[in-house]
Structure formats: C-alpha cells, structure tokens
TrEMBL record:
<feature type="domain" description="NIF system FeS cluster assembly NifU N-terminal">
    <location>
        <begin position="10"/>
        <end position="128"/>
    </location>
</feature>
<dbReference type="InterPro" id="IPR002871">
    <property type="entry name" value="NIF_FeS_clus_asmbl_NifU_N"/>
</dbReference>
<comment type="similarity">
    <text>Belongs to the NifU family.</text>
</comment>
<dbReference type="Pfam" id="PF01592">
    <property type="entry name" value="NifU_N"/>
</dbReference>
<dbReference type="GO" id="GO:0016226">
    <property type="term" value="P:iron-sulfur cluster assembly"/>
</dbReference>
<dbReference type="GO" id="GO:0005506">
    <property type="term" value="F:iron ion binding"/>
</dbReference>
<protein>
    <submittedName>
        <fullName>Fe-S cluster formation protein, NifU-like</fullName>
    </submittedName>
</protein>
<dbReference type="GO" id="GO:0051536">
    <property type="term" value="F:iron-sulfur cluster binding"/>
</dbReference>
Length: 146
C-alpha cells in the first residue's frame, strides 16, 4: 500500500512530535499528577498539571512509550495549556471519537492533534493514542498520584 503525499506528511509530523516532543519533562511543583500504563504494550505516561483559577497554566508529560503515545502526549499538552479545566473533558471526548471512529464533526477543535485520526485504522494503537488524553481526564477530575 503506497502512502499518499499527505499520509507521508502526517507520518513525518507524528514522528517529529514523538522524537522532539513539546512539554516533555516534569514540573517542579505540579498541582495534579497522574500516571497511567497501557498493559497491552507497556507504555507508561505521567501527566503533570499546574492549575490556577481553574485554568491549566502549564503541563508536562514524561514516561516511555511508542511513537504514537509520545506524539499524542506532546499534541495533547500543547492543546490544553491555557484552557479552562471545564473544556478538557469535551476535547478528550472528541479525540477519543476521532481515533476510534475516524471522524468527529468537531475535530477542528483539536488543532494539530487531529493529525492522529488515522490511528483508527489500527485498533491495537488506539490505547496508545488515548493514554495521555485519559490521564488529562483523570487530572481534571482531581486525581493525583501520591
């Protein structure tokens, strides 16, 4: 199966996000921190949020995992910084629908993260793509690892 030029571009962007992720690392004093594991492939991701006035002022993720989980973490953190906590569950839902079904009428709200919509063609990779987003949903709910 030959890749179209657009598919090749998307693949290159995903690889760049994974190998040069934004917001990768740890916060010095996070308000919320959630660690999730994907037992089917071994991905581990920790998401840390700094929150002020119910708005995400900073976010970092760390851990190890495949290209898809790392790219997804980078794209997700970039999207949620500056957002109200109340906005994040909807974004998580849109992203989940997008990678599970391949489309969502609201996918334009995801910005660059919509590039991962092709993951729906690979059901075994959906958990990889949604790991960071599930961590975001738990962090919004107030979950914090101790």
């Amino acid at each position: 199966m030959a890749l179209t030029k657009l598919d090749q571009l998307y693949r290159q962007v995903i690889l760049d996000e994974a190998y040069h992720p934004r917001h990768h690392g740890k916060l010095s004093a996070p308000d919320r921190s959630v660690t999730l594991r994907n037992p089917s492939c071994g991905d581990v991701l920790t998401l840390q949020l700094q929150v002020a006035a119910d708005r995400v002022t900073d976010a970092k993720f760390s851990g190890s995992g495949c290209t898809i989980s790392q790219a997804s973490g980078s794209l997700m953190t970039d999207l949620i910084i500056g957002r109200q906590l109340s906005e994040i569950p909807e974004l998580v839902g849109i992203f989940s629908d997008l990678v599970i079904n391949g489309s969502d009428p609201r996918e334009d709200q995801l910005g660059d993260a919509a590039i991962l919509k092709g993951v729906h063609q690979f059901p075994a990779r959906v958990k990889c793509a949604t790991l960071a987003w599930k961590a975001a949903a738990q962090a919004v709910e107030g979950a914090t690892d101790d």
